[in-house]
Design goal:
homodimer; 312 residues; alpha/beta; two-stranded antiparallel sheet; 13 strands; 23% strand; DNA-binding
DNA sequence: ACATGTTGCTGCCGTTTCGGCAACGGCTAT
DNA sequence: ATAGCCGTTGCCGAAACGGCAGCAACATGT
């Protein structure tokens, strides 16, 4: 079922590996064959596709254009294959998901487990990474579905849904703040705080608000792992900040308390976006899971915003 | 610049012509070559792509799926080509437009003339047809942009814009109705009427309204050409119905009068949709023209609805 | 400075694939 | 029945492809 020119496949492999010999190893062919196909391709396009450095190949501008086209072709071929397969009742394939850490604790495992119990022949590849890396993985075709903080997304990605969750403080049950209904940033900063490092998007949400305050904050802990911050907060080390998405288990065990942030009378929102490549049509089984994902996140958004109604 | 398997191109040609020998003539190759490529393709897919009848070849279900994939590939290849070309300053290509007749008198010629005066290397192919044929031409990949009555469009088409224009009666300057500001359907039916045949979408707009009336209408003329109906109305033969889009010249020469229809106090809308294939990214020069088209139609919508403000 | 490893590229040559020609059986229309 | 068109199939030359070995250019490690 490989009815596309070898040039296409070879080019794709070379782009991913950044090397002709590595691509050749990946494809189980001689490097000379790969080299020739690339040269032929460049001749037909009429422009070099790679810049040859001593250590490998880098895409030129034209090369990036071709890479986009080739990705469109190969991903659409995948969809065609799965369409044909689902015609004969076989509903299988692999869904590749890139998401940020806050989904890893509850949302994604729950969803995947539920989906697998219904469609056992659909397998999953999940990759946890930073928000901008999520978008980059989508653009490179390494993931089918991406979930990230809703930054400004490039035009070649499509935002399927946008859900907003309230940012809140996370404290141990014994913490002095734990009995409040909501907290302000000032109140939190009176205690030791577990800050997010800039690689986490929570940093970029809170930094502008903290900068507005004149107070000098308490000496704080900094971390780059949502999970770690959560566990630190559970041990009473300090106040952490995140959405309620990733703390279902620990609040259920009553070790942690989630306190919605109150910023001068209004909530602090953390916008979560679901993304797919814009130029791509998803296979039916992927589209189906995507719908479930959107529905589930919408459900959680509704539940959480009902549990902590607006302050205003 | 043809770096896709011959199988792809051959399959595409066979699908369009419905015959292997005709495709071979089109491609300037022997029919045996085409036949073999199709057989090879069917073997790789693992399922027949065509049903062989005595009169040629018809797509099977799997064949239609592959046709969709192949169209996506070839159209995206076109986009890639034009992207590369525009990189070296050459901004050229062909825009293929399928539209209904009402656009042919003024909107489209004006727009194309204006666009050509700026971008002389962009050429156009325009095809006038019925609304459902417009959608079908888009789906078959025979047109890049489609303008049609906004019916329910299939999911593989994307509605870029939706503009509504008021349906009105068209009468000669000397017609008894000509001095009114608006008319009702009853008032029109008191005179000879030029009816649209069912192949025109105006028929489907007016038919439900006429059916509600109890009166027996005057003996009428029926026609299937917007242009003919307009010219008949200008000669005082009867009352025609259309939007004001297609009658700019004749109203300018003051031969025709346009009277917005008043249906029990509310206007009668004719919804015009602009469509493109959903699974396709347009070349830059096509996208640019598309934007101008949307803008121009929006402008006309605004102007006309300002000239004939709502009745309610 | 030198050796070593890696990079992409290029003749050479066997294998595979492709395309053109002619012919065959099946079908339709006259 | 005859003529015409259809898709398919052997046969064969031509073109494309892939593997092997060797090349120069460059980076790295000693």
């Amino acid at each position: 079922m490989r009815f596309h020119s070898p040039s296409i496949q070879y080019f794709h492999a070379v782009r991913r590996t950044g090397s002709i010999r590595a691509a050749a190893r990946l494809l189980n062919v001689a490097s000379s064959a790969v080299s020739r196909q690339i040269l032929k391709l460049e001749q037909e396009v009429g422009s070099p596709l790679f810049e040859r450095t001593a250590r490998g190949l880098t895409l030129t501008t034209v090369g990036e254009m071709l890479a986009r086209h080739v990705m469109n072709v190969l991903q659409d071929l995948d969809r065609f294959r799965s369409d044909v397969a689902s015609l004969s009742g076989a509903w299988h394939g692999t869904i590749s998901i890139a998401c940020i850490e806050s989904l890893a604790e509850s949302v994604l495992p729950d969803l995947i487990a539920a989906h697998r119990s219904r469609a056992r022949r659909v397998s999953f590849t999940t990759m946890v990474m930073g928000s901008s890396d999520v978008l980059e993985a989508l653009r490179r075709g390494e993931a089918d579905i991406g979930i990230a903080m809703a930054l400004r997304h490039p035009p070649d990605l499509r935002q399927v849904a946008l859900k907003r969750f309230r940012l809140g403080a996370l404290v141990a049950r014994e913490h002095p703040l734990a009995r409040r209904k909501t907290v302000t940033l000032e109140q939190c900063l009176a205690f030791p705080v577990i800050h997010a490092l800039p690689e986490l998007s929570i940093y970029h949400l809170l930094q502008p608000l903290i900068a507005q305050l004149s107070e000098t904050p308490e000496p704080a802990i900094q971390a780059n792992s949502i999970d770690l911050m959560r566990e630190l907060a559970a041990r009473g080390v300090g106040v952490a900040f995140q959405t309620q998405l990733g703390i279902v288990r620990l609040t259920r065990d009553a070790q942690l308390v989630f306190l919605p942030l109150d910023n001068a009378g209004s909530p602090v929102w953390s916008d979560l976006g679901i993304y797919v490549r814009a130029e791509r049509t998803l296979p039916a089984f992927t589209e189906s899971f995507l719908q479930e994902l959107v529905r589930e996140l919408g459900e959680r958004e509704r539940r959480e915003n009902a549990a902590y109604p607006h302050i205003a």
